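Components:
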Amino acid sequence: MPKDHGIGASQKRREDVRFLTGRGQYTDDINLHGQTYVYFLRSDVAHGKINSIDTSAAEAMEGVVRIFTGADFEGIGGLPCGWQVTDRFGQPMQEPGHPVLARGKVRHVGDPIAAIVAETKEQARDAAEAIVLDIEELPAVVDMKAALAEGAAKVHDELSSNLCYDWGFVEDNKAAVDEAIKNAAHVTTLELVNNRLIANPMEPRVAVGDYNFANDESTLYTTSQNPHVIRLLMGAFVLGIPEHKLRVVAPDVGGGFGTKIFHYAEEAFVTFAARQIKRPVKWTSTRSEAFMSDAHGRDHVTKIELALDADNNFTALRCETYANMGAYLSTFAPSVPTWLHGTLLAGNYRTPLIYTNVKAVFTNTVPVDAYRGAGRPEATFQIERVVDKAARELGVDPIQLRRQNFITQFPYSTPVAVQYDTGDYVATMDKLEEIMDMSGFAARRKESEAKGKWRGLGVNCYIEACGIAPSNLVGQLGARAGLYDAATVRVNATGSISVMVGAHSHGQGHETTFPQVIAEMIGIDESQIDIVHGDSSKIPFGMGTYGSRSLAVCGSAMVRATEKVIRKAKKIAAHLLEASEADIELKNGKFSVAGTDKSVDWAGVTLAAYVPHNYPLEDIEPGLEETAFYDPSNFTYPSGAYACEVEVDPETGKVQILKFAAADDFGNVVNPMIVEGQVHGGIAQGIGQAMLEAAIYDENGQLQSASYMDYAMPRADDVPFYIVDHSCATPCTHNPLGVKGCGEAGAIGSPPAVVNAVIDALASGGKNVGHINMPLTPHRVWKAINS
Amino acid sequence: MYAFDVTRPKTVAEAVEALGAEEAQALGGGQTLIPTLKQRLASPSVLVSLASIDEIKGVCADGDTLTIGGGTTHATVAQEAAATYPALAALAANIGDPAVRNRGTIGGSLANNDPSACYPSAALASNATIVTNTREIAADDYFQGLFTTALEPGEIITGVKFPVPQAANYQKFVQPASRFSLVGVFVAKYADGVRVAVTGASEGGVFRWTEAEAALSADFSPAALDGLTASADGLINDLHGDAEYRAHLIKVMTKRAVAAAN
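Structure:
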């Protein structure tokens, strides 16, 4: 019988009760006394020189409290970048300023120029229309390769070019890789685009700034995945507010997908303006604003080459990528195409020699940063597409080619600087073949052919590095922060527990899964345990939620803190039971003396801790509350094998996904139902990238897919019922729960399976197409068929 | 949105009077107009909601004519036209999503004449008559280009009269994001010939594919279209498909419509 309690139980998400009944408390639900509203006047040109901004008429309009422009931020810091990449030549990346409000120039459509604070939203917007702008439009830089050409317009005049950095990894391998490719029996080359995406969380971004002049305290309510990161960046680098005077609250957040990690201008603005006008200032993004102000994702242009020997063993991999940074460096942008991408290029294979070169480029587009998977989907897509193409070129079975090159010995040190602790790629591939019913594919293909359709089967593997990340390692790699996390386990007098965690839940279900862990450890019911998150004044300094890290890093901190609590509780129990501490056992919420019938229950001990009438006060303090910080010693390495079956209508190019299976190795799993939900959501996003989504700019830097009329999000009927399995578990060796993380896997593992399946379908129809760039819209597929 | 007043007349006469006001704008189901207002792309002084006028609602079959009130929602058409004119009901059932179908109206759609909307193709292929508060307009005269119709300012579509065909079908190939038609083809077969109307494809809005009509009037079978090619001239080139693709889809969708109608 499946467990209904503790680790491994598919408990229903307790947070859903409030979300589904409208009882959630989102940032936009927060309205403060005397609140004002800000409207941002944003650039409608991609690149321009600001000659003048005349706000005089607007300032006189009804309800206007104050209008701010870039000039009001004289002496105030710009938005900081949290990661400094060092280039191939040992030089730091070019790091331009990122003003809160544009100064001198506008650099992308959506760049905020002025902020109108008024009594109502409509008044602010009315006044914005009365601002007279004189902006001299400059040539826009949109295409990355054109941006690096001699004589290209510069996004940032103070930089030497539009090149942020030219990064090589592992630079010492370069010559050997070049040599291996030159001498290979076969080289498969693939040029591809990893399409630019917009995260589109259901809840747009919102920020409310508040200031209490009586005690000089600022509070920012914001839609963030990591309130402490925002407090650190904004307090220390932008506004100069010390931590004890700055509280950042991220209440219920309706999805993040990475785009709510970063520190945004609007957050700094409302905090700053609230101090200036001594009234709360609120901003709620419209969906249209979200398209042009939320950091975008992906946007890589890549050439990848895979070298094989005469026996089809992979001998070398070379990758050349152009990565779009957009107009400014978003908080973690430089890390995505480098350390979150280059270190993953071994994939699941024993390729001995790997070299990647990444040129990060400034363009007059919205900044690009981490989006579900962040660098790892880009790495996976390239590898799994080029391996598939190689199999097709060599006329070998794509699954066999993968199996032949799998890493099978663990731990495994890759040539790209990481060490995989565990994994079993053969097991997940075996499982995939089983759950996908691959042996029945030939018959299913015949059925499709009878209807005039082409059926294709695509598979891929993936490996990701999660549980981000060991602080000493990322520090060496350029991170300007540590990436530990923290938890405080506060046991109350009657035995209930409040757990304050640095991780932030915005869809992940922490409020359900974290208590399952503690319930298992202590042996009490989950209903006794609540999770507190999202408020810097309540929780210990943690780094938040992204990179599939919450359970692996923050969960580990919680385990450590709980272990400390149990150790202390055992001391108290030993005192109460007049026994030796070493003889105390904790089982099912009861402390007992080994070999006797003497026992005291959990609540008896917790009560003694807070009512210490009979208590070893000479040895230990009263109370039962412990904090732990956890800094992992390595990344975790979830892995898996995915398969997709499609049917292509050759007349129209329309692709229908008929079947999708995922065999994942997440190590140990706390709540299987929530894990499956995460995989479902991730696959839906991966299918979105593969089939539907694309942020497309025209040559003038205008975003053409700037609303849901043109930006296609996956809908329920775009995706099939998924077959998911996570039974092939090789627990992580270095965190206490043996967990690996599951949040991004679906989005990382699914795009190549979809594209591989479509290429396979076309081949079955006699159309041998090397590659089609995502999204595989009917138009693109039809063009590929008819080219 | 800019500020505006709203009035909810109960009769066509009251609505016509209200629309006489300066900068007045009729509001059907609001599925296009409300987003336009939110974007501040329109600034009417008063919105005259047609939603409370019962006399322009409903579906009525009378002999070979199906009359649909201008204020009838897509959801109602989907349900109530199903027995008489199933192809039209099916078209209505696939417009937007349930929220759109329960607000949007046939009169609103035809008055807006979005080049990618579904209804214009049905009206044109059926040789429908657009009935307004002042006159009756044949579909061939009604559609005059992108978002342009024969309607005069203040004129209200009170109903649409559809001659019921012997056979008909609508094939909609959706634009993946908006799910409007990238190309939609409505084929209707009458005793005196076949009409084929195409939406979604042309820069000039809905149009008739007359070569296909001639071929299908002679032989109402997909094979009758084999030798034909829809011209790419004047077709839409956008993110979702170029003119050549749309021209190709016109033929594919027409064939499928004929096959389904047979």
